[in-house]
Structures are given as structure tokens and as C-alpha cells.
Amino acid sequence: MFRISLVLKIAIFATGCAGIVAEFVLSTLATYLIGNAVFQWTIVMSLMLFAMGLGSRLSKLFTYRLLDTFILVEFGLSILCSFSAVLAYGLAAYTSHINIIIYLMAMVIGALIGFEIPLVMRLNDAHEELKTNIAAVMEKDYYGSLLGGLFFAFFALPYLGLTYTPIILGAINFLVASLLLWSFFHLIQKKNLVVSAFAACCLFLIFLAVLAKPIIMYSEQRQYKDKIIYAQQTPYQKIVITQWKEYFWLFINGQEQFSSFDEEKYHEPLVHPAMKLSANRDKILILGGGDGLALREVLKYSDVKSVTMVDLDPAMTDLAAKHSVLVNINNASMNDPRLKVVNQDAGAFLKEDDHYYGAVIIDLPDPDTIELMHLYCVNFYRLVARHLRPGGVMVTQATSPYFSRQAFLCIIKTIKEAGFTCLAYHNQIPTMGEWGWVLGVRDAAMDEQILKQRVLAADFNGLDTRFLNNDAMVSMVHFGKGIIEQNQMDKLKVNTQLNPILQRYYQANTWDMY
User: Fold this and answer.
1) Chain centroid, CA 137 distance in Å
2) What is the pLDDT of residues 276-329, one digit of tens each?
3) Please, which residues bridge with residue 397 across strands?
């Protein structure tokens, strides 16, 4: 009797481990396929916990053959957990409502986990008194959840990715059910049914292990117009490179970062106005820009002695330094001896760093998630200001002034609030649409008109560029009627960490402003 009690506790420990990782996988999948990490993790985990309550309530309807039921539920969890990522990837290529499918899977898995816990307590009731039984079962479930979280964060996601992590989870549930089945076969009442479930689950896991990667690759390929030549899931993001003819695209979490077809129309305007205005280009700081393309433009200035690049994901900076496609596009800039790469959050870096720079170039992702808000808030720009030398310049990409006009104006207003004199400018990038940047200087004697005149007076014709020249710069610093109006900006709030209003502006449909 002690032996069955021990095996049941092992089972609930393993179930807690596998269940929590399954929900982490679904939350990560939802973030990658849909976006907005905080929202997706909140919804998926909340639905799971709610469904666990439903499963617990449902379990009271089962009064006979409890061991058979528990083993069958374990086999069901094995199939659902292992198949979750493949199903989500596969259907994402055919439906725009993949969020509903992921939420339903989270609820079903949660319900089965919630169903199991009362069953184990009832099965163990004959072997331990009530208070010991409840404490022991819940303890093992919570301990398993801790192990599952550590496993997912430090091993599963970095090394197994979202393809094979769910299969490992399914195998854990399968092994637990198999241990119970063959250890206590004499207690099974519906032997044919349970053995058949064992055989079916075993065959399913074997076939899935063989076919998972081709299925996911096929499904991912359908989500991109062009051929995928590289894909990697890192602990921070999904990196994909595609190819069409002699051109290449880089995507992060499904969003285009650049195309070699026209990337110069983004990176040259990002870098050169700030570099031309900087009073001292010895030391340059790049925040983001892990693909090395902004760095390529910075290194065109012979007086640059050192560049510090701060990018969160080491996989991205390593890829830019080693992958032949990226090395060719960035002119091997990531291997330049003047470069120092720091893989750290940009905000945390600025708080710890004690150096000063002639220019700070901010090439971060669009402000579409709450976790990016601290890198677009007023305190962040004040930190940037503290790291600028006298005569130093900062510039940031600021999303689209046409498709996300409120967000664009909010960024301008927030940078001004940090004490900068600002100049906004824009350019048409065929593969990305209209894009905007904000240039900032800390000089009380310089207003926006003087700053604009200094930019237009700079010599861009002599640069080694594919697109940017003086004529292009003239067009970029001028906007059409009604795009940047002070009365519109006055209605917007400054983005702060306590009130990250920028995300709401970014996600709002701004077409009605036209």
C-alpha cells in the first residue's frame, strides 16, 4: 500500500511539472504567433487556472474505477501536451483566429490537470489520513511546477525549442501512466481499454517525434511568402531569415526587421544625421541593432574609435557575426575590433554604465508590447541624456508617422519632456511603408528650426551611401499637411513607466486621423 501511495505522488509531481511547462509553451506560442506577451501569458495562465477548477468539479462525478480513469487521463494529457505546438503551428497557417485554438488547448490541459489532483487524493485516501494526504498531494504538485518552470527557462526553450519541448512533456505523462499501469496492472478493471490506450499513445508519440519538425517547418513556411533559409527559437524571440531571388528578409517573432532589398532607406537615415551633427564621434553607443546594419553605417566614419552595442539576445548578435547572409549584408561589421557587444537590457545597461558617448543610436523594436515600454519612457530618454558628451546627439526609430501617428507623436513629446530639442523626419521604405525617426540634442540655445537648418547644412553627398544624399534629407525633414500638428501632440500624454500609454497609442487604429 505504501508503494501505490509513493507512485501516485511521483505521478502528481510529474504531472505538475509537465502541466506548467505545457502552459508556458502555449503562452510562448501565443506571444510568437499573436504578439503582446504580457496579455497572452496572462490570458493563457488565467484560463488554465480557471479550467483546473472546472476539472476539479468534474472529477466528483467519477466514483468508480478511479485508477483506470487516472491512467487514461494521463494518456490524454500525454497526447495533448505533446501535440500542442504542432497543432498551433499547423493551424496558424490556415486561420487568423489561432488565439482561440491556443486558449481552448490551455483550458483542456488545465481541466485535465485539475481533474487529476482530486483523483489522486481519493486514490491515496486509504493510505494516509486526510490532512497528510491533502498536504502531500498538493506539495508534490507545487514542487513539480517549480521544477517545470526551471526546466522550461534554463533548458527546454533554449535547447529544445517549441518543437520538442512539448514532446518531452508528453513523454513524461506517458511514462507516469505506464508506471502506474504496469506496476498495478492487477488493480486495473478495464484492462483491454487501458492497454489499448497505452499502445495508441506510444505509437502517437513515436510518430510525432519523427514528423513534428517537418510539420512545423511546413506550417512556418506557409506563413512567409519566401523560402525560409534559417529559423531559431531563442529564450527571447523567434528569428527567421527568408530569401527571394538575391534578396533576404529578417523577421523577429513574425515581424519584418529589414529586407536587403531596401534596408538602406532605413539604416542610412537612422545613423547619418546623428553622426553628422555629433561634435565628437570617438565613442558611439548603439542600443538594439543586433543585426549589425546600423553599426555598418557608423563604421563608415574614420574617426570612430569605439562602438558599444547593447542588444538583449546573444543569439542575434552571434548570428549577425557568423551567418554568411548577415555578414555579407552588414559588411562584417560585427567582427570589427572597435566593437564591444553587451547582451543586456538597454535600460539596465544605461543605469550601470559610466561612459559618455558622442552619439546614442536607438534601434529597438516597435513599441507594440508592454515589456518594451520602459525603453520608450521619459526616464529612459533622461538616462540617454546623461550619457551624452557635450555636443552629443541621440536618435531613435519612432515607428510610422502614418500608420501609427499617435505613437509617433507620443515618442516626440516624451523625448521633449526628457529635455531634448527634437527634429522628426521620415522616409518611405517599400517593404515596410512610411517610417519615422526622432533626432534629439541637449542644447538650450538650439530650437527645432536651428536644428533642422544644421541637419540640412550637413554634407551627405560625400558619404558612402546607397540612398541618402542632401536632396533626400531635404524631403525627409518635411511632412505633409496635418501630419505633425502641435494641437494633436498637446492632446497626447507623455509615456512613463507607471503610465505606459504609448502601447495603447501604437495599437490604436489611427486611420481616422486622415
Assistant:
1) 35
2) 999 999 999 999 999 999 999 999 999 999 999 999 999 999 999 999 999 999
3) 437
Per DSSP, the chain holds a count of helices (H) and strands (E) of: 18, 11
Q: Diameter of the chain by CA atoms?
A: 89
Distance CA 309, CA 128 (A): 59
CB 285 within 8 A of CB 308: yes
DSSP state of 262: T
Q: Which of 302, 280, 307 is nearest to 292 (CA)?
A: 307
Q: Tell me if 252 sits within 8 A of 372, measured CB to CB.
A: no
Q: How many beta carbons lie within 10 A of that of residue 139, not counting itself?
A: 14
Contact 176, 74 (CB under 8 A): yes
Residue pair 411/372 in contact by the 8 Å Cβ criterion: no
Spatial separation of the C-alpha atoms in residues 110 and 43, rounded to whole Å: 13
- Measured CA to CA, the distance from residue 507 to residue 406 in angstroms comes to 9
Task: Give per-residue pLDDT as tens, 154-191.
Answer: 888 777 877 788 888 889 889 988 988 988 898 899 99
CB 379 within 8 A of CB 415: no
Edge-to-edge, what's the strand order for the sheet holding 227-233? 227-233, 238-244, 247-252, 255-259
For the stretch 126-141, pLDDT in tens is 666 667 777 877 888 8
Q: Is 363 a catalytic residue?
A: yes
Give the total residue count for the chain: 514
Start-end of H helices in 330-469: 346-352, 378-386, 405-417, 448-457
SS3 61: coil
**What's the pTM?**
0.80
CA distance 231 to 394: 33
How far apart (Å, rounded) are the C-alpha atoms in residues 144 and 282? Answer: 53
Catalytic residue among 68, 141, 311, 363: 363
* Cα–Cα distance measured from residue 493 to residue 444, given in angstroms and rounded to the nearest whole number: 23
Nearest to 64 by CA among 124, 123, 6: 123
Which helix (H) or strand (E) is 252 found in, with range? strand 247-252
